């Protein structure tokens, strides 16, 4: 599903250049649930943003679902993002003046799904994350956990090939974190490929594989026995 | 691009950002409103000039006699110049090829009575040419004609208001009215675009007036019309020659500022039209500046709007919005707001113009019928909408180009 070869990325700041990713090689199969771990500043988000086509790589190759991701203009990148990827952010990134339902329906709008079908689908995914009753509420009327569940429903709505979650539990307390992880595990159980960036060990243990980043390279890549989040809720 | 969904999305955004919408809309509406009212006022001023000078023929001179101020040719100063019948004939003979008609005018106030009704009116004793000079329109009957002049008939042509006041709706033609002690038969009733006061005159044959006043041959003022084919410069030359001719004939110093005065209606009109059009240009300039500042206002707001929405744009991009969609949404939003509020401003402006029309404005500020033709108003509104869209395009394009990761980081 995802194949990355010899990926390099540096940030230029004036005359200085910060080499963040220094040759990453890694691939992800369909249906995997991968945790990307590492200390703060180790380049986890940078990697995930490149995978999400929100940022560009400097060197190396990236193939997503057998499509080489290379020299994309903004329009193509937007179309690929819409077709292949769902995003879950630490700070939720919901549009504050749109209701939960409208937020979930947004990717479908950009997929040119008809209005009625859009509503139905959005409602279906809201139901899956247990927020059907909150459909008409604005994000400001929801708790942190609820907001993240809306964001997950939104990421799911477009039925992407891969879900990318950058510290999805970073802004949540542990109980809520486990609820969100429980949801992510269930989505994965249904066959979806998911990458979760985290620096919390317990969250990482709830995935099926842990990739450890340090100083811009992968220092460890191991399969783990998944801890079910439902045991904690 | 123009699907119902797009509009729903835009309406939703507008609805949820009322203050911003209001600020943009207010700027646009105010700009158009000020433009429309200013432009209308400019037109009103112009109308006033046209009204002052537009109800009489323009190819005419009026010659007014007065007292001399310089001793000349053996005469003392302070001599009252008077025109006589022979002066009229001499002018007509001298300038025959240029003349269209020539008429004297002897003005006298008179107490006029018909049965129990009576009032004071101004009578103008004239020749038939006066009808053309004053652009008098006959409602019924006829004007004073050449036969009246020759036979010194006691016929009168009365204004619409005279008939209305004296006859109270009854038929006036063929009736006799008493003018200053003499009975005159009404042979015609006229109207005049110059207004009610112009319709309170009574026209009489000038020869009849002379007969009444002791069979003299004095004529008050002379009005003459020249052939329009001589053009503006021809008219100016004619005026000079005429002035010279009369001064020689009546023995008036060429340097005397008084003695006679020739009013050149064409020249007056031209000067006043120039003045009016300069005024109009100034007003249009101000109005245009208002529109420009409106456009600058919109661009400022749009820059602010786009900046404020950077993060939202980042989110939308992450969800799959292409740059084209981002730009067109922002543009349509801007067009929608400017069009609606521009229209409101336009309508309010036109309504204001309509409601401020009236006597006070006309008498005190020389503004008659302030108005803007709808074509101009719509053109300016569309211009503002297009400029608003252009103003929005620059920041929209920039926003669409910004990398989603940068936009998402924006707080
Ligand atoms: N846009 C940027 N410009 C410059 N430096 C950046 C930028 N984004 C991230 N960095 C730097 O790159 C390094 C890795 O950042 P990041 O990928 O966000 O780390 P993590 O998510 O693992 O905490 C950090 O040192 C960070 O300061
Ligand atoms: Mg990070």
Give the overall shape of chain B, derived from the CA principal axes. elongated
- Please state how the strands of the largest beta sheet of chain A are arranged side by side: 6-7-8-3-9-10
Number of domains of chain B: 2
Shape of chain A: globular
Q: Spans of chain B of 5+ residues with little confidence (pLDDT < 50)? A: none
Bound molecules: adenosine-5'-diphosphate, magnesium ion
**Strand numbers in spatial order across the main sheet of chain B:** 3-4-9-6-8-7
The CATH homologous superfamily of chain A is termed: P-loop containing nucleotide triphosphate hydrolases
List SSEs of chain A in N-to-C order.
Answer: EEEHEEHEHHHEHEHEE
Helix and strand element order of chain B: HHEEHEEHEHEHEEEHEEHEHHHHHH
Report the count of strand segments of chain A. Answer: 10
Mean pLDDT of chain A, to the nearest integer, reads: 92
Kindly name the structural category of chain B.
Answer: alpha+beta
What structural class do you assign from the helix and strand content of chain A? alpha/beta
Assembly state of the chains shown: heterodimer
Count of discrete domains of chain A: 1
CATH class of chain A: Alpha Beta
Give the radius of gyration of chain A: 17 Å
Helix content of chain A: 25-40%
The fraction of residues in strands of chain A falls at: 25-35%
């Amino acid at each position: 599903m995802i194949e990355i070869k010899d990926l390099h990325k540096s940030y230029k700041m004036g005359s200085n250049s910060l080499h963040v990713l220094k040759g990453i090689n890694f691939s992800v199969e369909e249906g995997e649930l991968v945790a990307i771990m590492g200390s703060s500043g180790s380049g986890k988000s940078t990697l995930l943003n490149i995978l999400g086509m929100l940022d560009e790589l400097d060197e190396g190759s990236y193939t997503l679902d057998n499509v080489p991701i290379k020299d994309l203009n903004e329009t193509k990148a937007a179309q690929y993002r819409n077709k292949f990827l769902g995003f879950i952010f630490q700070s939720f990134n919901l549009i504050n003046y749109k209701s939960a339902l409208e937020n979930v329906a947004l990717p479908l709008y950009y997929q040119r799904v008809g209005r009625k079908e859009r509503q139905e689908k959005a409602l279906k995914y809201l139901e899956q994350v247990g927020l059907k009753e909150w459909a008409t509420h604005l994000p400001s009327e929801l708790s942190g956990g609820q907001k993240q569940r809306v964001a997950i429903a939104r990421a799911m709505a477009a039925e992407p090939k891969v879900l990318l979650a950058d510290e999805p539990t970073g802004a949540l307390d542990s109980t809520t974190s486990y609820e969100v992880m429980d949801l992510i595990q269930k989505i994965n159980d249904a066959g979806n490929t998911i990458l979760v960036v985290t620096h919390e060990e317990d969250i990482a243990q709830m995935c099926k594989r842990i990739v450890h980043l340090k100083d811009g390279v992968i220092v460890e890549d191991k399969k783990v026995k998944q801890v079910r989040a439902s045991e904690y809720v | 691009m123009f699907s119902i969904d797009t509009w729903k999305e835009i309406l939703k955004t507008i609805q949820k950002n009322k203050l911003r919408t209001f600020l943009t809309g207010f700027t646009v509406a105010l700009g158009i409103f000020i433009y429309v009212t200013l432009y209308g006022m400019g037109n009103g001023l112009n109308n006033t000039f046209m009204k002052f000078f537009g109800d009489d023929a323009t190819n005419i001179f009026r010659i007014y006699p007065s007292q001399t101020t310089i001793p000349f040719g053996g005469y003392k100063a302070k001599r009252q110049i008077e025109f006589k019948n022979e002066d009229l004939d001499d002018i007509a003979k001298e300038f025959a090829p240029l003349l269209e008609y020539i008429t004297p005018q002897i003005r006298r106030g008179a107490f006029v009575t018909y049965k129990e009704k009576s009032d004071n009116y101004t009578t103008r004793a004239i020749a038939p040419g006066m009808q053309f000079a004053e652009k008098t329109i006959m409602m019924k009957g006829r004007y004073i004609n050449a036969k009246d002049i020759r036979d010194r008939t006691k016929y009168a042509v009365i204004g619409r208001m005279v008939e209305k006041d004296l006859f109270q709706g009854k038929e006036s033609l063929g009736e006799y009215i008493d003018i200053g002690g003499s009975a005159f038969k009404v042979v015609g009733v006229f109207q005049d675009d110059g207004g009610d006061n112009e319709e309170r005159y009574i026209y009489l044959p000038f020869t009849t007036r002379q007969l009444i006043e002791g069979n003299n041959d004095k004529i008050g003022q002379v009005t003459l019309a020249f052939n329009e084919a001589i053009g503006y410069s021809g008219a100016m030359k004619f005026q000079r020659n005429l002035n010279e001719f009369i001064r020689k004939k009546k023995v008036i110093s060429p340097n005397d500022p008084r003695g006679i005065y020739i009013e050149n209606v064409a020249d007056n009109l031209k000067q006043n039209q120039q003045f009016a059009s300069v005024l109009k240009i100034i007003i249009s300039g101000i109005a245009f500046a208002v529109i420009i500042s409106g456009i600058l206002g919109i661009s400022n707001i749009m820059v602010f709007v786009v900046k404020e929405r950077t993060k939202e744009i980042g989110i939308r991009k992450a969800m799959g919005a292409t740059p084209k969609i981002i730009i067109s949404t922002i543009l349509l939003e801007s067009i929608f707001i400017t069009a609606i509020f521009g229209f409101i401003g336009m309508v309010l402006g036109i309504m204001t113009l309509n409601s401020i029309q009236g006597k006070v404005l006309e008498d005190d500020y020389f503004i008659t019928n302030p108005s803007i033709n709808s074509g101009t108003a719509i053109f300016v509104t569309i211009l503002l909408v297009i400029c608003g869209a252009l103003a929005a395009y620059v920041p929209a394009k920039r926003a669409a180009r910004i990398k989603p990761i940068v936009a998402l980081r924006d707080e």
